[in-house]
Amino acid sequence: LNPPYSKPTPWIERFIEHNNGITLVAYSKARWFNLLWDKADGVLPMPSRMMFVKPNGEEAGIFMPTALFALGSDNADALRRLNIGRVR
């Protein structure tokens, strides 16, 4: 799941209800952060140098901290297998 960064709350709530998957979210001062933090089986903060590729092919960084949150043990294991950082 990669919800819109402008209004992720309804997407995060549905993700938690589904209780299975991985989501990429920006979390600076997010109201839903503690709820997702408490529910997640794995959390992997993304490197600050992470880049996105725009539809026109240009690369762009993001100014907010982002993380992958996993619900479900198989998904948390998938985060660990990425080997890009420590999974909580």
Distinctive features:
alpha+beta; three-stranded antiparallel β-sheet; 5 strands
Show the helix and strand layout.
Layout lengths: L8 H10 L2 E6 L6 H7 L2 E4 L5 E3 L5 E3 L4 E6 L1 H9 L7
Antiparallel strand pairs: 1-5, 2-5, 3-4
Report what the structure shows.
Helix content is 30%, strand content 25%. The strands form two sheets. Strands 1-5-2 form a three-stranded antiparallel sheet, with helices on both faces. Strands 3-4 form a two-stranded antiparallel ribbon. Strand 3 and strand 4 form a beta hairpin.
Q: How much of the residues is beta strand, in percent?
A: 25-35%
The major pleated sheet works out as:
3 strands, antiparallel
| Arithmetic mean pLDDT | 92
Strand runs, count = 5
Strand order of the largest sheet: 1-5-2
- Summed up, the helix count is 3
Uncertain runs:
none
Structural class: alpha+beta
Task: Name the shape in a single word.
Answer: globular
Helix content: 25-40%
Radius of gyration: 13 Å
Order of helices and strands: HEHEEEEH
Distance between the termini: 19 Å
